[in-house]
Amino acid sequence: xxxxxxxxxxxxxxxxxxxxxxxxxxxxxxxxxxxxxxxxxxxxxxxxxxxxxxxxxxxxxxxxxxxxxxxxxxxxxxxxxxxxxxxxxxxxxxxxxxxxxxxxxxxxxxxxxxxxxxxxxxxxxxxxxxxxxxxxxxxxxxxxxxxxxxxxxxxxxxxxxxxxxxxxxxxxxxxxxxxxxxxxxxxxxxxxxxxxxxxxxxxxxxxxxxxxxxxxxxxxxxxxxxxxxxxxxxxxxxxxxxxxxxxxxxxxxxxxxxxxxxxxxxxxxxxxxxxxxxxxxxxxxxxxxxxxxxxxxxxxxxxxxxxxxxxxxxxxxxxxxxxxxxxxxxxxxxxxxxxxxxxxxxxxxxxxxxxxxxxxxxxxxxxxxxxxxxxxxx
Length: 378
Description:
Structural class: alpha+beta
Number of helices: 8
CATH superfamily of the largest domain: Endonuclease/exonuclease/phosphatase
Oligomer: single chain
Organism: Helianthus annuus (Common sunflower)
Order of helices and strands: EHEEEEEEHEEHEEEEEHEEHHHH
Protein name: RNA-directed DNA polymerase
GO molecular function, one term: RNA-directed DNA polymerase activity
Keywords: Nucleotidyltransferase, RNA-directed DNA polymerase, Transferase
Pfam family, one: Exo_endo_phos
Radius of gyration: 25 Å
CATH class of the largest domain: Alpha Beta
C-alpha cells in the first residue's frame, strides 16, 4: 500500500483536492493523511473530492476554530479499519491489510507549536504504542512541528530542548525513518526565506523489515507551504487511459485542419449512414496522434515550469534568491496555475461524462416506483 501525507493549510480550496486526487490516481495511493483541514465541523469536509470514483472510508478530527483538523482516507479493499484513537493532535487508525493480513496502525500527526504541549503529544503517542500488542506495525506521518538536528532548519531558531524530547520519543518507541528523496526541507515560509524539515514519516522495525525498499519522496509544494510526502511501498500500473474528446482541445491551434483533412480523405459513397460512420472513424484516428502531440507539448511545458520552480526552491534552501529570480518564480507559478485551470475543466468534463455513462446508483425499480407516485399524485 502506498501512503501520502500532506498539510494542505485549508481543505476549502477545490484545486488542492483535485491535486491530491490526481496524485492518488497516478501513484495508486491506498492511504492519504491530510493535516490542517481548518474545518471545525468535519461534516463540512467533502471527502469524496480528495478521492476518485472508487470506494473509500475515512476518519476525521475537527479543527479547533480555524486551527488544525485532520483527515484519514483509505481504500477499504486494501485496508480494513478495526477501530481508531484520536485527540486534537493525532488520529490513529487501526486496521488490517487484506493482502497478507498485516495488522497496522496509521497515525496522522499534526503536532502543536507549544513546547510543553508537543512533549505531551509524544508521551500520549508513546503510551498508545506501548499499550498495543507487539504484533502491530506502526507508521506515523504528518506535520510533527519539530526537527531532530540543527541542520534541519535554515534561517529559523533551533530549540535543542524540543529536539531532544522528539529524539527521545523516537528512540524509546524504536521508530525509524526512510531517507527522503528529492529535497532537504519540507516546509518553506511564504516569503521563501525560512526552511525546516518538520514533515516526516516514522515507522517501526517490523514495518521497515517488511518494506525495506520503500521510497519516501518529497513532492513539489502545491498551494501550501508544506511539501506532500509520499511513501511508495508498491508500484501500480493502470494501463493506457481511454480516448476522450475534451472541449479544451478546441482552444488549440491546428485541430480544425486535422478534422477537415480527415473528413475529405474519405470519398463519398452510399449509403449515407455508413459514409458518416467512416468519416467519424477517420476523424477519430486522425485526432489520436494530434491529441498525443498536444498533450506531450502541454505536459512538457508544465514539467519545465515546475522543474524551474523546484530548482529555485532548492536553491533558496541554501542561499537567498535575487529579486529577478523571485519575480521569475512568481510568473512561472502563475502560468502553472493557468494550466491547472485548463486541466480542472477537463476533469469536470470527465466527471460529467462518467455520470452520463454510468448513471446514478438508484435502480430501475426505484425510478419505477417514483414515476408511479408521480402518476398517482397527478
